[in-house]
Specification:
The complex is a heterodimer of chains A (116) and B (111).
Chain A: E1 5-7, E2 10-13, E3 19-24, E4 31-38, E5 42-50, E6 53-56, E7 65-71, E8 74-79, E9 88-95, E10 106-107, E11 111-115
Chain B: E1 3-6, E2 11-14, E3 19-21, E4 23-26, E5 32-38, E6 45-50, E7 56-59, E8 62-65, E9 75-77, E10 86-93, E11 99-101, E12 105-110
Parallel strand pairs in B: 2-12
Antiparallel strand pairs in B: 1-4, 3-9, 5-6, 5-10, 7-8, 8-9, 10-11, 10-12
The chains are: A mainly beta (116), B mainly beta (111).
Chain lengths: 116, 111
């Protein structure tokens, strides 16, 4: 398997523009997570889905952020409008619960977002 | 709620030194415990895990033992290499899909 795929790997945009980050989870995984990582705040969980349904979006910083999962193989995280403080590395991860109830998360390589 | 507390970094060691990174947790129920590693410019990847008390997870020379009595899961390696330089995250999961991560500990190994 190719692992979790994220695109783009790097994004540079100007303040006020819309940004869309994309993620393809590992086939067969039924959980999908979006994280944000910065030096100041560390790794933050933004939102996660189970079977394409959003379960917990309490980490989404504000209404400018939205996430969708239209099917089991694709998810997007959108920021509109973007602001300089959104600059970070955004990770997508996927997982499944094994027979023992253990959940190992598999992370993508991340998208490095810079908002000027 | 669940929480994970990791030893604060950064940690700097010489090659072949012994490594310990402390991790303690608070959780309801019986969590699975994990150590993830993040190399520069990459996402996190699983290093090792343990699913029940007294289990020992091991991989690439790293070990950690699930200690229920002390609610700990300390990471150890007997002889570190320069290639072990990375950020290490302790995490727990209580079967609800969502994991709780520690703040990460940066390890730098010097030749």
């Amino acid at each position: 398997d190719a692992g979790v795929i994220q695109s783009p790997r790097h994004e540079v945009t100007e303040m006020g523009q819309e940004v869309t980050l994309r993620c393809k989870p590992i086939s067969g995984h039924d959980y999908l997570f979006w994280y944000r990582q910065t030096m100041m705040r560390g790794l933050e969980l933004l939102i996660y889905f189970n079977n394409n349904v959003p379960i917990d979006d309490s980490g989404m910083p504000e209404d400018r952020f939205s996430a969708k999962m239209p099917n089991a193989s694709f998810s997007t995280l959108k920021i509109q409008p973007s602001e300089p403080r959104d600059s970070a590395v955004y990770f997508c991860a996927s997982s499944f619960l094994d027979r023992g109830g253990t959940d190992t998360q598999y992370f993508g390589p991340g998208t490095r977002l810079t908002v000027l | 709620g669940n929480s994970v507390t990791q030893m604060e970094g950064p940690v700097t060691l010489s090659e072949e030194a012994f490594l310990t990174i402390n991790c303690t947790y608070t959780a309801t129920g019986y969590p699975s415990l994990f150590w993830y590693v993040q190399y520069p410019g990459e996402g996190l990847q699983l290093l090792l895990k343990a699913t029940k008390a007294d289990d020992k997870g091991s991989n690439k020379g790293f070990e950690a033992t699930y200690r229920k009595e002390t609610t700990s899961f300390h990471l150890e390696k007997g002889s570190v290499q320069v290639s072990d330089s990375a950020v290490y995250f302790c995490a727990l999961n209580t079967n609800a899909g969502k994991s709780t991560f520690g703040d990460g500990t940066t390890l730098t190994v010097k030749p």
